[in-house]
Amino acid sequence: MKPSSGSSMLRPTRAALFALAVVLALLTVFPLFWMVSSAFKGPDEVNSVNLIPAAPTLDNFRYVFTEVPFLRYMLNSLFVATVVTVAALWFHSMAAYALARLRFPGRDLLFFAIFSTLLVALPIILVPLFILVRELGMLDSYAGLIVPAVFNAFGIFLLRQFYIGMPKELEDAAFVDGCGYWGVYWHVILPLSRPILAALAVFFFLANWNSFLWPLTITQNQDLWMIQVAISSFQTQYAGAWNYIMAAATVAAIPTMALFFVFQRQLVESIKTSGFK
Amino acid sequence: MSAGASETPRRGLSRKHREWLAAALFVAPDALGLLVFLGVPMVLALGLGFFEVTGFGGISFAGLDNYRKMFADPLFFDSLKVTVLYVVGFVAGVFVVSLGLALLVRQKIPFVGFFRSLFFLPHVVSLVVVGLVWQFMLTDGVGVVNQVLESVGIGGRSWLGDPQLALGTVVLVSIWFFMGYYMIIFLAGLQEIPREYYDAAKIDGARAWQLFRHITWPLLKPTSFFVLLVSTITGVAGLQAFDLIYVMTKGGPANSTSLGIFYIYQQAFQFNDYGYAAAMSSFLVLLLLAATALMFVLTGGGRFETE
Predict the structure, then answer these.
(1) Residue A61 buriedness (CB in 10 A; 0-12 / 13-18 / 19+)
(2) Partner-chain residue, chosen from B126, B184, B202, that has the shortest CB–CB distance to A252
(3) What is the pTM assigned to this prediction?
(4) Which position among A77, A82, A95, A262 has the lowest Cβ density within 10 Å, counted as fewest Cβ atoms?
(5) Which residues from chain A sit within 8 angstroms of residue B177, using beta carbons?
(6) Where is each ABC transmembrane type-1 domain found (chain B) (predicted)?
(7) B160 touches chain A (CB under 8 A)
(8) Please, what CATH class does the domain formed by B66-298 belong to?
(9) Is there a contact between B190 and A4 if contact means CB atoms under 8 Å apart?
């Protein structure tokens, strides 16, 4: 991303734009800063407007991890998000490979059918999906949290786009070496798609770590709660105890922000591609 | 893990048929999964409204009962009104804000990459966290927003407690959450515009506003359409709005933030009236299609490929 050519721009204008950017950035980040700052404040200070806690304390975090099985909720989320991400990348890359590189009857029709599921949003199908999952006996289970979350056309779509652009020579060389279709997929296609798989992995992991409506709908058993469901219930349980709630929110948000700062290039690339292919 | 795609012709298949078999096996997991967990529910979503579904699996045909109930339910129509207000406010707001941010972070200013990251940051945090944080900041009396406003002489308001304000507050928080995402989409669109156009226009003495009006705006149309379309679908379907409403207002005060999708959720999962919820879902699907069609008409064609 290169800045646009604005070499003739006057200095005062640029200074004003810089000042504007600073103000907007501060406004944008303030709520997140406030969350973290309040998480370190005691119950007496949490409603004050001190930017930095006058008497910083770790009590809220201690409370969140000892009085509530918060670690369990985080591990649930970690487990579900990881399994969904790995399964999704595996299935999507296989499907995308076939759709992009193999020839078979009905291929375009199949792709169109898969593509059209992009328009199906969870809230619209929430009730029938819930009933279906109930009939399959997957309510209140890890399977119910994981399996329906694996399938979405977005990943297939991006990977297919990526595979279409690959040179055919690499595949041919592998065939000559005696590889079958599986061998080509495993030894040629997958290693070459490492960058895009990394981008999608970050994307899927974040989406599942942050997902709320589906886990809320199908888990009653508190042992299966994912972190977002847990912190939303915190709010009713500890109404007004904002120091605890902000500590819980901070713990839930820190991993996502950390992932973003480490992988922001990949994340931004996958968003850009989603808009233009 | 042999996917049955070994290339030895042991089953007497021709090369062509082996390719078909391999493709079928590669596609099968995803195709089946999408069919079962998206395709079937989608069909059910349109049909289930004609049935009575009770909490424990009893299903009986109910004809048009659910739809009759729906058309006689003022709360349903209120929730549609809220949905339309939310979508209009959100789509217009996020369009202007994210385009503005994209134009800003295209300028030659110091640390521009850092600013881009900061504007995007809210989007990686979960909506439950977002809802909690904003609710905390907007709490009546003790919230930091009101305290700051009062300190500069503006009376505090009940941002989430006043039926006149609550929906607007939810719209603003939604915009805050999404502006970085659409900023990235707009940035990608801006990059597609050849720099030569600007250089030529500048030689002719065009000013910044003219550059925007005559080059950026027309050439950005495909991106603009894409943003309008996606934000409208997001708004109507309401996956994100649901999380915020659930955390911040529970549809209140006085149902002023009860989006269609939230009302449907309540009917299904608080009152166990799945058939009625499905009937309303199918109506929402129609609304979604209508909004999409309207978008195509309003934008005159609505192609969003960039050549």
Answers:
(1) middle
(2) B126
(3) 0.88
(4) A262
(5) none
(6) 80-295
(7) no
(8) mainly alpha
(9) yes
User: What mean pLDDT is reported for chain A?
Assistant: 88
Contact A179 B144 (CB under 8 A): no
Which pLDDT tens digit goes with each residue over A37-50? 999 998 888 888 88
- Closest Cβ opposite residue A256 in set B37, B125, B261: B125
Instruction: State yes or no: pLDDT of A151 exceeds 90.
Output: yes
- A186-199 tens-digit pLDDT: 988 999 898 889 88
Partners of residue A228 in chain B, C-beta under 8 Å: 126, 128-129, 243
Q: Cα–Cα distances in Å, from B3 out to A170, A181, B26, B36?
A: 21, 8, 8, 22
**B278 and chain A: CB distance < 8 Å anywhere?**
yes
Q: Which residue of A has its CA nearest to B108?
A: A3
Closest residue of B to A8, CA-based?
Answer: B202
Domains of chain A from N-terminus onward: 63-276 (1.10.3720.10)
Answer yes or no: is pLDDT of A2 > 50. no
Instruction: Please indicate whether, in this complex, the C-beta atoms of B247 and A129 are within 8 angstroms of each other.
Output: no
Interface-testing mutation among A22, A114, A124, A238, with chain B (most B C-beta atoms within 10 A): A124
- What ipTM is given for this predicted complex? 0.88
Residue boundaries of the structural domains of chain B: 15-61, 66-298
Residue A125 pLDDT > 90, yes or no? no
pLDDT at A177: 82
Q: Name the burial class of residue A181, with classes exposed (0-12), middle (13-18) and buried (19+) by CB atoms within 10 angstroms of its CB.
A: buried
Residue-by-residue DSSP string for chain B:
---S---S-TT---HHHHHHHHHHHHHHHHHHHHIIIIIHHHHHHHHGGGEEE-TTS-EEE-TTHHHHHHHT-HHHHHHHHHHHHHHHHHHHHHHHHHHHHHHHTTS--TTHHHHHHHHHGGGGS-HHHHHHHHHHHT-TTT-HHHHHHHHTTPPP--TTT-TTTHHHHHHHHHHHHHHHHHHHHHHHHHHTS-HHHHHHHHHTT--HHHHIIIIIHHHTHHHHHHHHHHHHHHHHH-HHHHHHHHHHTTT-STTTT--HHHHHHHHHHTT--HHHHHHHHHHHHHHHHHHHHHHHHHTTT------
Substitution target from A20, A64, A86, A125 for chain B, most B beta carbons within 10 A: A125
Q: Are A213 and B110 an interchain contact pair (Cβ–Cβ within 8 Å)?
A: no
